[in-house]
Amino acid sequence: MVLQDLGRRLNSALQSVSASSSIDEQALDAVLKSVCAALLESDVNVLLVKRTRERVKKLVLPQLEQIQAKQGTEHDAMAGNKAKQLIHKAIFDELVALVDPGDDAPPAFNPVKGKTQVIMMVGLQGAGKTTTCTKLATHYQRRGLKVALVCADTFRAGAFDQLKQNATRAKVPFFGSYTETDPVAISLQGVQKFRSERFDVIIVDTSGRHRQESELFDEMCQIQDAVEPDMTVLVLDGAIGQAAEAQSQAFKEASDFGAIIVTKLDGHAKGGGAISAVAATHTPIIFIGTGEHLHDLEKFSPRPFISKMLG
Ligand code: GDP
């Protein structure tokens, strides 16, 4: 089920509460059943879905009982409305909690002008790393920061050309090499060059490969040691479904990234896997990719995201 469908399904489950004549435990179970089915079909992790159901029930049931005790009195209609609002709010809050790692997660990283900050992008090949590097560079550039890109992907043929092309189109200075095959050496040279030129943000694009091989992780750690990024960002393909959880966990252990960017949420992505990655790694999503073009990058905040999804 694609993300828009998930929104529609969740919305119609919530509407069914509004339309219902009596609100009791049975009605709550019915709406939770629809909500949970929609989440599961969107590839949200089964344990997370179970937790969502339990938390809503635990919160709503005692209050529902209190409200029910008042039914049969002149407060009937008011009590019914209160119960509906209670269920709506509890489900909405739990949906937000699914994409919010909570207050104890590391705060979102906000680069500032006047000092050099290095951002290292990691993720599997095809996730959208190179595209996202330029999108992110453009985003920071529009905020007045001096941004540069470094291509440390020496594994994929054509990676440097792709970054070069994107960077040129976006008018972002870039660094890479056709001859140097050591990604650690390239990233270090690039970062040193732009650091000495007092760039505010240096974004390092790293190699992806298809699987989470140990060589990939070794290389990632060596680049990290060399360039000492202020922030490592995992770029996660929004369309990979259930695999997102294991993948993000493996990257977390290897690179301890501090933020996630989920790509391809414009297309046929179910999105639920990416949602599960937040919980699995206790890390915030900071942006989502919503298309192939330079400006198809949206800032991510849990509440507005859920509100928009519900339409
Ligand atoms: P990398 O191997 O991780 O560097 O991935 P690329 O940046 O080369 O992207 C792989 C493919 O995904 C390319 O065809 C991109 O145009 C496409 N892509 C990246 N981000 C998005 C996105 O947000 N939406 C859509 N629809 N396509 C995207």
Automatic annotation (TrEMBL):
Keyword GTP-binding set for record: yes
Q: Where is the SRP54-type proteins GTP-binding domain?
A: 284-297
Q: List, in alphabetical order, the GO biological process terms annotated in this UniProt record.
A: SRP-dependent cotranslational protein targeting to membrane, translocation
Location comes to: Cytoplasm
What is an example of a GO molecular function annotated in this UniProt entry?
A: GTP binding
Provide the primary localization.
cytoplasm
For this record, the Gene Ontology CC terms, alphabetical, are:
cytosol; signal recognition particle, endoplasmic reticulum targeting
Q: Which UniProt keywords apply?
A: Cytoplasm, GTP-binding, Hydrolase, Nucleotide-binding, Ribonucleoprotein, RNA-binding, Signal recognition particle
By sequence similarity, the record places it as follows: Belongs to the GTP-binding SRP family. SRP54 subfamily.
Q: Indicate what this protein is called per its UniProt record.
A: signal-recognition-particle GTPase
UniProt source species? Rhodotorula diobovata
Q: Which taxonomic lineage does the organism of this UniProt entry have?
A: Eukaryota, Fungi, Dikarya, Basidiomycota, Pucciniomycotina
